Amino acid sequence: METIKERFIEKALPKVEVIRKLKKEHSQIPVSEVTIGHVLTGMKGIVSLLTDTSKLDPQEGIRFRGYSIPELQKLLPKVQSDGEPLPEGLFYLMLMDELPTPENVAYITSEWAKRSEVPKKALQVIDALPTDMHPMNQYVAGIVALADGSKFMKAYQSGMNKKDYWDPTYEDVMDLIAKLPRIAAYIYRRSYHNNQQIDPDPNLDWAGNLAHMMGFDDDEVKRLFRLYLFLHADHEGGNVSAHTTHLVGSALSSPYQAYAAGMLGLAGPLHGLANQEVIKWILEMIKELNVENPTKEQIAQYVKDTLNAGRVVPGYGHAVLRKTDPRYMAQREFALKFLPDDPIFKVVSNVYEVVPPILSQIAKIQNPWPNVDAHSGALLLHYGIKQYEFYTVLFSVSRALGVLAQLVWDRVYGLPIERPKSQNPAWFMEKAGLKS
Length: 436
Ligand code: CMX
Prior knowledge:
binds carboxymethyldethia coenzyme *A, globular, mainly alpha, about 60% helix, 3-stranded antiparallel sheet, CATH 1.10.230.10, 3 strands, about 425 residues, 20 helices
């Protein structure tokens, strides 16, 4: 057995005992009260999931295994000393619950490079799709095509013991994450660059290679990709992509199937697709107003028109956060450092000044502040990644790190199949003392 796997299970087993003890001896302790309001507002705030990898505080934002984004920007290994954390390091932290050394990160980079070859069968599935099919649909089709190679499913079919589930899950997770940059870049080159594919560079890290295979060799783009794949990796367990991956994984579907399902959730405009919606909205505003740099008054009017049309302002609001998303701030800092004069960045900055005061006036909106998706498109656009329909694929590549690290933990704990209870409207009316 390889070192990380050996150390992982050594660390994990005592935690398995804790979970067993909680289940056996403390099952009856209530952790949340469930009201009709919870059921009808998307179950927000009900504590009902077990997640190790990260925790979201409404005021402070995300912490990965206890570390905030600014802390990890200092503590995780980087390529340049003033550079961005390597996503490999964040994966290591989420999986192993300890900060990685540069050697640990180098090990993960080399493991993923070794496992990165995408079988021809999966590429043929993508090749069979129209090139103008939405990249997220192509991406998920590619992942599903990989599922036939699942080591977990093979071991399950051969009668694997329950206590060993985590082991082939770990193998699938490492195989799958390794292949994601190639699948993503393959779709990008196929849809937007005449299918002229670019081979990976064995000397590059996971994120740097994604930029390279998409056709971007500028050092700044590689830096942006490291930041991007670091920032989008995880956001606690209840968001649609994480929860779906966990839920589908609870049926013992393979990690490929569970992740594919999760990414179909990320493909929704209220979740990850918001990154394409933001840039689409900004470009449409610029086109409609026929100006390059709309004034704050023009932006305010456009925001009001969007709201009056019964649409959401993309990139603003959040189910949990009640402050500006620190992932937004980290991207803003990158923009201030590398592209302070970019015209779209200036529009994004003006939108940031205009939108929160308007949304704050609408009582039902819980959070008027920008989320991660309000900024990412402007950075990608600056470096020539204009095809905004592709943006959610990049989010997906990153999100694999958190949801799949957690899936290994789910399988170590032996978490059961999820099956909450549902009731019809008459049942709720009766609970409320109303006649049906
Ligand atoms: N623009 C207009 N209306 C908004 C709004 C926004 N940015 N944010 C919230 N609202 C509305 C909701 O649509 C809801 O209206 P109804 O009651 O009429 O349905 C009401 O305000 C209450 O919503 P909430 O409790 O504040 O927020 P939710 O938890 O229901 O929704 C979110 C959260 C993110 C879906 C919502 O803020 C939104 O639609 N934002 C725009 C889309 C977006 O940026 N999504 C990306 C989120 C980050 C990510 O997952 O990647």
